[in-house]
Specification:
388 residues, alpha/beta, Rossmann fold, Glycerate kinase, domain 2, 6-stranded mixed sheet, 5-stranded parallel sheet, globular
Length: 388
């Protein structure tokens, strides 16, 4: 029996590689003779840089950066030789990765500007900046990257990427010409001008992103993602208005049409996709399709007899989304036996060939479930597969 072990993260408790390692050990204990293929997944958030870099046998580089609320953090980015990237993924990257001999840097926004870097009481998008992400991009460019692939999941920010752009040479100024650095949304009313540009030879930035939200409106970045980043209802209308004003300033400075804010994906990660498209001519790529191609997911699915996957919560929306839900759909389409292990399982439909297992016992408090996640996941997998 060959088993593909393809987990995404368990939010606030386990990274995708950790979940895969736990599952491999548990399956090995329950079924010692099975061949196991660990395949961590990423949606562009936590683990993105490590997963893609290790999959292509690249190297991780450590760099100091500024966290979302100004504290110093240590973050890493990947350096991957172009020729080690699978052909299908290289084709998606385009001309920047068409010729061998160079390297692609893999940068993860969550490692420098991520929500998980902040305790719940510190989460306030009015005072969070993406400057640390810009610092990582700058470090990757200085180290000789031919192109920069940026994963933008899990952000703590709503600064339209102006923090990141400030680390790349853009200057935001107040009424007296004073620098607003880094500029956070709480200070947007003071913003009067934007100046500067990226160096002409700056490597292209490619953003792995499955978010389809525009920047503004009821499906925009603030309306959909603001509450989880600490947005107070009393601040929503004023901040939405300021978002539109600042976005128009960004478009004017960089010579972009205002319609850029309406583009699907412009609202990703607090508008960093919008800001980098405007100021750095960044290009959006379908995130999970890129990751799937990069880690050869289709070939590994075809080679497997069984698939074991999971994440923190698995429900009906998972099957129409990305990550483990997509793995489940593709595996079932190939007639594979599929087991899902998640902290919570809330499916309203029964699907032939799919076996679901809730890791958290009924009635257990969330804090206890998070702290005990490694043991709960291991015990649930071992018990389920020993009985299967």
């Amino acid at each position: 029996m060959r088993v593909l072990v393809a987990f995404d993260k368990f939010k606030d408790s386990l990274t995708a590689p950790q979940a895969c390692d736990i599952a491999v050990a548990a399956i090995g204990s329950a079924r010692g003779g099975w061949a196991l293929d660990p395949c961590p997944l990423s949606d562009g958030g936590e683990g993105f840089a490590e997963i893609l870099t290790r999959s292509a046998e690249g190297a991780l580089r450590l760099a100091g950066a500024t966290g979302p609320r100004g504290a110093a953090v240590q973050a890493s980015f990947g350096f991957v030789p172009v020729e080690r990237i699978p052909d299908r993924a290289r084709a998606m990257l385009g001309a920047a990765a068409a010729r061998p001999g160079g390297v692609v840097a893999v940068v993860e926004m969550a490692s420098a500007s991520g929500l998980a870097l902040l305790a719940p009481g510190e989460r306030d998008l009015l005072r969070a900046s993406s400057v640390g992400t810009g610092q990582l991009i700058s470090a990757a460019a200085a180290a000789g990257a031919r192109a920069i692939l940026l994963g933008v999941g899990g952000s703590a920010t709503h600064d339209l990427g102006l923090g990141a752009l400030s680390a790349l040479g853009i200057r935001c100024e107040g009424a007296e010409g004073e620098a607003l650095d880094p500029l956070v949304p709480a200070d947007w009313p003071r913003l009067r001008s934007i100046s500067g540009a990226l160096p002409a030879a700056f490597p292209p930035i490619l953003i792995a992103c499955d978010v389809q939200n525009p920047l503004l409106g009821r499906r925009g970045a603030l309306a959909v993602y603001g509450p989880q980043k600490g947005l107070r209802a009393a601040d929503a209308a004023r901040l939405e208005s300021e978002t539109g004003r600042v976005a128009a300033m960004v478009c004017r400075h960089f010579g972009q049409p205002d319609a850029l804010a309406e583009l699907a994906g412009a609202g990703a990660a607090g508008g960093i996709a919008f800001g980098l498209m405007a100021g750095a001519n960044a290009r959006l790529l379908p995130g999970f399709d890129l990751v799937s191609s990069w880690i050869d997911l289709e070939d590994r699915l075809s080679a497997a007899d069984m698939v074991v996957t999971g994440e923190g919560r698995f429900d009906d929306t998972s099957l129409s989304g990305k990550g483990p839900g997509t793995v489940v759909r593709r595996a079932l389409a190939q007639g594979k036996l599929v087991h899902v292990f998640a902290g919570q399982v809330e499916l309203t439909q029964r699907i032939p060939g799919l076996f679901t297992h809730a890791v958290t016992p009924p009635g257990m408090a969330l804090a206890d479930a998070l702290s005990r996640a490694p043991g709960l996941l291991s015990e649930t997998i071992e018990r389920a597969l020993a009985e299967g």
